[in-house]
Amino acid sequence: MVGEHKLRLVKCIYEKSEKNDLIRALVTYLRRGFSRESGDSWGALIYLGLLAFSVLVALKNQGFREEQEWRLVGFDLQKERLKLRQGRFGVVPYCALPLCPPGKKLSLCRVYVGPNEQPVIARAAAQALVHLHARDFPKVIVSETSWRVETRLQS
């Protein structure tokens, strides 16, 4: 859990074998949990569902493995913290969280800019953000993964 926000830090998984192992373990855990609860406790069933969600958001396309992303996953967010912004494909919900205490600056060694339609502009924006909020001036690295990654479902 991260601070007062009741968030879970989840490391993203990119390799197919690791994803399969994680999904098998999750299914086994959920089977045990659901059979033990037998539908008697909605709270326990909701907890199992949220746990499953926090595991599944860790699964990412292998093309993005260079990012080595970690995600903050939270379910107990207060309504006033939830905000909305316009995204490329519609409205995106988000929760603004402080990255460090007020008056302090971040200590970063590298900042990665993910695949982007406009990598030069994205890099400049990341450098400006780092200049404002970082103690040192970390290296800003732009992802070499193409903006669109084609995925195919396998049967």
Structural features, described:
It is globular, with a radius of gyration of 19 Å. β5, α3 and β6 (about 140) form a beta-alpha-beta unit. About 35% of the residues lie in helices and about 20% in strands. The protein has about 160 residues and is of the alpha+beta class. α1 (about 15-35) packs antiparallel against α2. It has helices spanning about 15-35, 40-55, 120-135, and strands at about 5-10, 70-75, 80-85, 90-95, 110-115, 140. It is built from 3 helices and 6 strands; from the N terminus they run βααββββαβ. The strands form 3 sheets. The chain has a two-stranded antiparallel sheet. It has a two-stranded antiparallel ribbon with strand order 3-4. A two-stranded parallel sheet has the order 5-6. It has 2 domains: about 1-95, no CATH class; about 100-155, no CATH class.
Keywords:
155 residues, alpha+beta, two-stranded antiparallel sheet, two-stranded antiparallel ribbon, 34% helix, globular
How would you summarize the topology of this molecule?
Elements: E1 7-11, H1 16-37, H2 42-56, E2 70-74, E3 82-87, E4 90-95, E5 110-113, H3 119-133, E6 139-142
Helix pairs in contact: 1-2
